[in-house]
């Protein structure tokens, strides 16, 4: 279910090696990762002799439910991808995994994240004669591998990832390897799991989140480390670290909103993290109220934490309808206006005459918050206070999360008092950035060495925005290197 007034995760990736019916396992994994991308999905399998692929628009359930499609995806090795498009329009040629035949054999790749120098590299590659089939920046990886002068696929991959700048997790499949790669700062997630293998030995899973392991009965082994390449074949798992170690900067928004609450990321339960964030928020911004009401679904754990810490009753004062259509298809203001009324209903029995604290995870444009507050007031609430389990989202994300341009972000243009007025609440407060870090087990935000990427809150972008703001000289150097 898409909420058009939330930032959107760009993609989910999944890979399986030595697993009976790898396509079905991958479809299940992608189903668990559906929240990371709903526009399109694809699976590529290898049956020991050749590759097979299916790509389709829409949800996982719409694509892999018929026996004919699944029969066309034989093999014990597979990678899969769910897409939420931020670059390139949604047409089948833009659906991943991408597949290419090289001199070393076939190569399929799926990518979560965003390259911040894709445009620069694309221009240079096109000038060299590379013919792009899609408008996705992910295709840059394929062409960089194709033109690399190294012999082995792994050396070519290392050559390619050393030229890209960005936040990404990759899964790739060759004729004899499943490969996982995480960007040098580990902004985007990727985890490794183990399952009973098709041949009785170990089978291996790569996935964006641990919830995709649970659905296929795999054991969590570990997070792929920032800057790490894992190579999986019939001899097991090997690790290569081609980059100099750097302080990691995992995306803090994964904890606040993107990841599924039953996932564990970087050793932290997302559900527990959200409850702790809610508790910290209650400490920082208490309110005299009768009920704590989450904006469902993502605001629920934070609201539980807020209620526990404040001693005020937690109630489901807003009910979400899970069966409405995908209103994001036409994200006009009018449709957004309709969308929220289709998705949420006020529970009048809980709200009438009460002083209500609404807990949500973020305010992006503010359109949804405004309508929800209107609805809660119309249901008879005496006061409406809003508490947000993330700092104000005042900057756009360039690292694989679809956020509106900065001018459309409510927090970029308004003070908290102005936002409260626009949304129509009696009071509005956000968790502080230090409070967020504390809830996640850190002493606070060390501005010299922040533990997370928090650029959408602070504007401190940890990865160069080459295509956007880097000086022209740097782009020219890159072009010269490639030509
Ligand atoms: S800018 Fe925000 S959403 Fe984007 S990677 Fe960083 S923390 Fe995550």
UniProtKB/TrEMBL annotation:
Keywords: 4Fe-4S, Glutamine amidotransferase, Glycosyltransferase, Iron, Iron-sulfur, Magnesium, Metal-binding, Purine biosynthesis, Transferase
Cofactor or coenzyme needed: [4Fe-4S] cluster; Mg(2+)
Functional pathway: Purine metabolism; IMP biosynthesis via de novo pathway; N(1)-(5-phospho-D-ribosyl)glycinamide from 5-phospho-alpha-D-ribose 1-diphosphate: step 1/2
Cofactor note: Binds 1 [4Fe-4S] cluster per subunit.
Domain of life: Bacteria
CDD domains linked to this entry: GPATase_N, PRTases_typeI
One Pfam family in the UniProt entry: GATase_6
Positions that bind [4Fe-4S] cluster: 251, 397, 453, 456
PROSITE patterns: GATASE_TYPE_2
The enzyme's E.C. designation: 2.4.2.14
Active site (UniProt): 11 (nucleophile)
Similarity annotation: In the C-terminal section; belongs to the purine/pyrimidine phosphoribosyltransferase family.
Record-given protein name: Amidophosphoribosyltransferase
Native organism: Acidocella aquatica
Biological classification of the source: Bacteria, Pseudomonadati, Pseudomonadota, Alphaproteobacteria, Acetobacterales
């Amino acid at each position: 279910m898409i909420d058009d007034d939330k930032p959107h995760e760009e993609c989910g990736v999944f890979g399986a090696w030595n697993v009976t019916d790898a396509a079905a396992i991958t479809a299940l994994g992608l189903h668990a990762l559906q929240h990371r991308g709903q526009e399109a999905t694809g699976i590529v399998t290898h049956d020991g002799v050749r590759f097979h692929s299916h790509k389709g628009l829409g949800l996982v359930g719409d694509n892999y439910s018929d026996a004919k499609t699944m029969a066309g995806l034989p093999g014990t090795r597979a990678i899969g991808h769910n897409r939420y498009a931020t670059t390139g329009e949604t047409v089948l040629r833009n659906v991943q995994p991408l597949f290419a035949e090289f001199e070393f054999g076939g190569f399929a790749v799926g990518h979560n994240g965003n390259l911040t120098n894709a445009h620069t590299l694309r221009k240079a590659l096109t000038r060299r004669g590379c013919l792009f089939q899609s408008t996705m920046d992910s295709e840059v990886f394929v062409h960089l591998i194709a033109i690399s002068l190294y012999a082995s696929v792994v050396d070519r991959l290392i050559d390619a990832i050393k030229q890209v700048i960005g936040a990404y997790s990759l899964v790739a499949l060759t004729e004899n390897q499943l490969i996982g790669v995480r960007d040098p700062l580990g902004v985007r997630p990727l985890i490794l799991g183990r399952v009973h293998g098709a041949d009785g030995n170990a089978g291996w899973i790569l996935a964006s989140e641990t919830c995709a392991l649970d659905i296929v009965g795999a054991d969590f082994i570990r997070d792929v480390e920032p800057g790490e390449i894992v190579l999986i074949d019939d001899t097991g798992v090997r690790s290569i670290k081609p980059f100099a170690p750097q302080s990691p900067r995992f995306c803090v928004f994964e904890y606040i909103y993107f990841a599924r609450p039953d996932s564990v990321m970087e050793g932290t339960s997302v559900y527990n993290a959200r409850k702790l964030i809610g508790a910290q928020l209650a400490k920082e911004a208490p309110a005299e109220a009768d009920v704590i009401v989450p904006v469902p679904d993502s605001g629920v754990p934070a609201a539980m934490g807020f209620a526990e810490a404040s001693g005020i009753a937690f109630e489901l004062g807003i009910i979400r309808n899970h069966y409405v259509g995908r209103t994001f298809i036409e994200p006009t203001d009018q449709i957004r206006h309709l969308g929220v009324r289709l998705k949420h209903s006020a529970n009048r029995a809980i709200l009438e005459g009460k002083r209500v604290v609404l807990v949500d995870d973020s305010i992006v444009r503010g359109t949804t918050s405004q309508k929800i507050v209107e609805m809660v007031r119309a249901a008879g609430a005496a006061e409406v206070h809003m508490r947000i389990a993330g700092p104000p989202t005042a900057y756009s994300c360039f690292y694989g999360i679809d956020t509106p341009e900065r001018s459309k972000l409510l927090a970029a243009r308004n003070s908290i008092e102005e936002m409260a007025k626009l949304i129509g609440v009696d009071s509005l407060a956000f968790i502080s950035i230090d409070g967020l870090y504390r809830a996640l087990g850190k002493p606070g935000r060390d501005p010299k060495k922040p533990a997370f990427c928090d650029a959408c809150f602070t504007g401190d972008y940890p990865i160069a925005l080459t295509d956007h703001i880097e000086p022209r000289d740097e782009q020219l150097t890159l072009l010269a290197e490639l030509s």
